[in-house]
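[audit] Reproducing an earlier prediction to check determinism. Same input, same settings, fresh worker. If the tokens differ from the archived copy the diff job will pick it up downstream; this log only records the rerun itself.
[audit] input (404 residues):
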Amino acid sequence: MDDQKQHPEKQKIEVGIIGGRFDKVSTVLEEFEPGNKDFIHSYEKMSIEPRKVGDVGEKEVKVKVPARLHATVLDMNCFNLNRPGGGGVGISIGVYFHATVKAIKEPEIRTSGERGLIVQHFAHIFKDLLGYTGGFEIELHDHKRRHVGLGSSIGSMCAVCIGMNEVLGRPFHGWELRRIMGYHSCEESPGENGYLLPAFETGIGAMVGINGGWVVASDDLVMVHRVELPDTKVIVFIPEVKSLEDEFQGKETAAESEVELLLRRARSLDTMQAAAKAQLVLFDMIPGMITGDLKKMGDALFDITYLGSKRAECEQHGAYGTPIYSYLNALREVGVEIVGMSSVGPTIFALTQKQDVYDRALKYLKSFNVAETRIIETFVDNTGGTVTENGVERTFLNDTWLKG
């Protein structure tokens, strides 16, 4: 009886995928414990050259990583569990993850703080890939806003990976860390039973977490272009939307519900409209990024919000997306240059470089008696991840950033 409580039976959820008209297959969500070798991928699969580390002395660093806004995926038909990709647009904001990572001689993994299961798994990944015989002491603190579209899981992975990479002598380039995170992306099982579930990953969280700024990515975790957005204010708002509870839809877990969204409705719409989204990025958004035209970038993103998988993500929050679209349209009418919903939501964001527009946007939100705890006032972080060692802070240099 006690053993069953300590080691509950792992669950598997099979979800049918429907993308194109003749595309009907399935994917399986399978729970696993941290360090399970079946969920640690080879260098060959990740397209990374093998590395090893020798005897590593004790070393400690502190890492700070910005959170990401995931404005859109470009084509959800391009990813699945253990196959990261799909492209997208991401923004780095001044909301942070903090990790303290220490290499120790004992072959143990000691964790404290938050997201312990994720931390343990990635520590096992580094030990396994690098043949590292020592251990880690890792303390992680996320931004406390989980499962609302602010990348709490990928930000945690990013902070821990940067820290472990530093204390081991930086065996991996930044783009290689991105691939390690992409292929091993995971989150805690909603059953709170000590297991993890594999997750979908585009690479956006790692790109903006490491590099900062505004990023456009293509498939297979490739970063296409990145720009800084100086003096850009950000309002992040978590609306109280009345989405249907999973129990009313006959879903066993939130994970099952999200998987069905990403692999069915969203894929089906992207089959028809991914090309239009890609054209808006190539012909409008990237030229706007190059010239620093925030409004042109925002116009392209606003059009994308009504297309493909982004439309499916907005629709899941009730009334075919009306609660989300009402806010987005109103903020645009206020004069905000860039608005959108992050990831599967319901977090809404507004970016502007004009103080009067910023003030009007805040006034608009507060006119609905929105609780201050649901509004985050911040900025675009153009620095990305930083490492502090012996009291000296430096940026995490992501050499060969276009590679991979």
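[audit] rerun output stored. Observation attached for the diff report: The chain has twelve helices and 16 strands.
[audit] end
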